[in-house]
Amino acid sequence: MRWAAFDPIAYVNHNYRRLQAEDAEILHLVRDHFGEHFRKQGFGPVSGIDVGAGANLYPALAMLPWCEDITLFERSPANVRYLAGQVDSYDPNWDQFWDVLRAHESYGSLDADPREEFRRTVRVEQGDIFDLGSREGRWSVGTMFFVAESMTASHQEFALGVERFLRALAPGAPFATAFMEHSTGYHTGEHFFPACDVGEYEVRASLEPFARDFKVQRLESAASVRDGYSGMIVAYGWRANSDPAVPAG
């Protein structure tokens, strides 16, 4: 896979230079899910992770009010460099995403400036999603947006990617994920990247063994961000308290 050739600037310019209706809808769902969870918990700051962060900061912003540290976990060297360059003071285009979040009281009441909080909280780590198996239960809140289905054409690898993400979370941790529905692959800059053809059924099946009380829903927003997919799916819920029993061999 040519991940070193991934062009984060082209990706941001195409997807995140302005706030699109799909992302606004995702932000509403995620902020309400996380806001309600942490309103009920009443405990101190936690550790968060965004798996396959890519060149997208808004999943980390969605976890910001409740985290003492957030790991942006990313494989592509080009994306790692982009993320590292955003930590000290992220670009102005991300303000519009924060504006959607801060309409919720949990975000609007954040005492610190979000850029200062982002700089204090976020660290970037280069790594492979499949290597997270050695760090099970490490994080207490997590996001994974457009990753498992956008790194491979294999349904087996897609399901394993979802599993690795969820197993990295502690029991009961809230999570939010997003998927491109029936994607046929995508271009970033001059390079083409494969995708796994998944719908609501495949997303639900991948989450079922490792999550509880989760919801899977197709976005209402129908505008096409790019060619080669039929819609977007958001799934959010909580890490299961236990995993399925392994049959005796």
Between the first and last Cα atoms, what is the distance in angstroms? 35 Å
> Could you give a short account of the major beta sheet?
7 strands, mixed
Strand content: 15-25%
Instruction: Count every helix, treating DSSP H or I runs of 4 or more residues as helices.
Output: 9
Count of all domains: 1
Strand order of the largest sheet: 3-2-1-4-5-9-8
**CATH fold-type name:** Rossmann fold
Taken from the alpha-carbon principal axes, the silhouette is globular
Q: Roughly how much helix do the residues carry, as a percent range? A: 25-40%
- On the 0 to 100 scale, the average pLDDT is 89
Give me the Rg, rounded. Answer: 17 Å
Name of the level-1 CATH class:
Alpha Beta
Order of helices and strands: HHEHEHHHHEEHEEEHEE
Poorly predicted parts = none
How does the helix and strand content classify structurally? Answer: alpha/beta
User: CATH superfamily name?
Assistant: Vaccinia Virus protein VP39
Overall strand count: 9
